[in-house]
C-alpha cells in the first residue's frame, strides 16, 4: 500500500500587491561623496573652481535624494541631507578660494609692477624727488643706497684708449655707491651713461687703463664702492647729462653737469 507525501506550498504574496522595490540610495551617497571632496578641494585656493563644480553637483544630488527619501524610494535621508549641507559648504569654500586667489594675484601683480618701476631716489637733504642733480650731489634711494656723481674733470685718454674720437674732449666723473640698506647691491648691474650738449648727443664711454672698468662684484650692506667713468664729448658741448641706474630694482637718476 503506497503512501503519498504532501509537501507544504510556499506562501504567496497576496493577490494584487506589487513586489517591493529596492531602495534608491545612490544619489544620497553620491551627494555625500562629492560634498566631502568639494570641501577638501576648497581648502586649496587654486582648486576653488573644482570645489564649486562638486558643490553644485552635491547640492543637486542631495536635494533629489531627499525627495526620494520623502517619497519612500530611498532609506538614507540622513546621508542625503549631509551631502546637501556639504555641497553648500563646498560652494562657500569655492567663493572663499576665489577671493583669496584673486587677492593674491592682484598683490603679486602690484609687487611685480613695483619691482619693474624700481625705487625712486630723493635728495640727501630729504627734499622731494628731482629730475636732475648737480655735480657732487647725492641721491638717496628708498632701499638705503646712496649714489653720488662728482663734478666733471678734464681727462686725457692714453694712446690705446677706445671710444675717443679726434677733435672731441674727454671728461671723467667719479661715481660712488654707498649701501646703507640691508640688501646687497649687484655692482655688475649698475649702468652709467651720458649725453652731451643741448641736443643730447650720446657721449661714448672711453675705455683705457685708467677708466671704463665700471663696477663689479657686490656692494654689501654697509660698504662703499667707487668707479671712474670717462666720456667722449663734442668740443662745443657745455653740459653733460650723466644717468646712473643701480640695477633693475632702482629707477635711473640724472646728474646735469656743467663742462
Overall description:
The protein has helices spanning 26-42, 48-70, 77-117; strands at residues 121-123, 132-133, 138-141, 145-149, 153-154, 169-179, 185-186, 190-196, 201-202, 204-206, 218-219, 224-233, 239-246, 253-258. It is α+β, with helices and mostly antiparallel strands and 259 residues long. It folds into 2 domains: 26-117; 121-258, Immunoglobulin-like. The strands form 3 sheets. Strands 1, 3, 4, 5, 6, 10 and 12 form a 7-stranded antiparallel beta sheet that branches. Strands 2-14-13-8-9 form a 5-stranded mixed beta sheet, with no helix packed on it. Strands 7-11 form a two-stranded antiparallel ribbon. β3 (138-141) and β4 form a beta hairpin. The radius of gyration is 40 Å and the shape is rod-shaped. It starts with 25 loop residues before the first helix and ends with a strand. InterPro entries: DUF4352 (IPR029051), Immunoprotect_excell_Ig-like (IPR029050).
Task: Quickly count the domains.
Answer: 2
Q: Quickly count the helices.
A: 3
CATH class of the largest domain: Mainly Beta
CATH architecture of the largest domain: Sandwich
Q: In terms of structural class, how would the helical and strand content be classed?
A: alpha+beta
Mean of all residue-level pLDDT scores: 86
How large, in whole angstroms, is the Cα Rg? 40 Å
Using the alpha-carbon principal axes, give the shape. Answer: rod-shaped
Can you count the beta strands? 14
The proportion of residues in beta strands is 25-35%
CATH fold call of the largest domain? Immunoglobulin-like
The oligomerization state is single chain
Order of helices and strands: HHHEEEEEEEEEEEEEE
Given as residue ranges, the uncertain stretches (5+ residues, pLDDT < 50) are: none
Distance between the termini: 147 Å
Pfam families: DUF4352
Keywords: Membrane, Signal, Transmembrane, Transmembrane helix
Protein name: DUF4352 domain-containing protein
Amino acid at each position: 500500500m503506497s503512501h503519498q507525501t504532501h509537501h507544504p506550498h510556499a506562501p504567496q504574496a497576496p493577490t494584487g500587491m506589487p513586489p517591493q522595490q529596492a531602495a534608491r540610495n545612490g544619489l544620497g551617497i553620491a551627494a555625500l561623496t562629492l560634498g566631502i571632496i568639494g570641501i577638501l578641494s576648497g581648502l586649496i585656493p587654486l582648486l576653488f573652481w573644482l570645489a564649486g563644480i562638486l558643490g553644485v553637483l552635491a547640492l543637486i544630488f542631495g536635494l533629489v535624494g531627499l525627495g526620494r527619501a520623502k517619497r519612500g524610494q530611498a532609506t538614507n535621508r540622513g546621508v542625503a541631507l549631509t551631502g546637501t549641507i556639504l555641497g553648500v559648504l563646498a560652494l562657500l569654500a569655492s567663493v572663499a578660494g576665489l577671493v583669496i586667489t584673486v587677492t593674491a594675484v592682484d598683490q603679486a601683480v602690484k609687487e611685480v609692477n613695483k619691482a619693474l618701476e624700481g625705487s625712486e631716489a630723493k635728495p640727501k637733504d630729504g627734499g622731494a624727488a628731482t629730475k636732475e642733480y648737480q655735480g657732487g650731489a647725492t641721491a638717496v634711494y628708498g632701499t638705503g643706497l646712496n649714489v653720488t656723481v662728482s663734478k666733471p674733470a678734464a681727462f686725457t685718454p692714453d694712446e690705446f684708449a677706445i671710444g675717443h674720437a679726434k677733435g672731441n674732449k674727454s671728461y671723467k666723473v667719479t661715481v660712488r655707491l654707498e649701501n646703507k640698506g640691508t640688501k646687497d647691491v649687484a655692482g655688475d648691474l649698475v649702468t652709467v651713461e651720458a649725453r652731451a650738449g643741448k641736443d643730447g648727443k650720446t657721449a661714448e664711454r672711453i675705455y683705457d687703463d685708467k677708466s671704463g672698468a665700471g663696477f663689479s662684484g657686490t656692494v654689501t650692506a654697509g660698504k662703499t664702492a667707487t668707479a671712474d667713468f670717462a666720456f667722449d664729448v663734442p668740443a662745443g658741448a657745455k653740459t653733460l647729462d650723466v644717468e646712473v641706474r643701480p640695477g633693475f630694482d632702482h629707477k635711473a637718476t640724472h646728474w646735469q653737469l656743467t663742462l
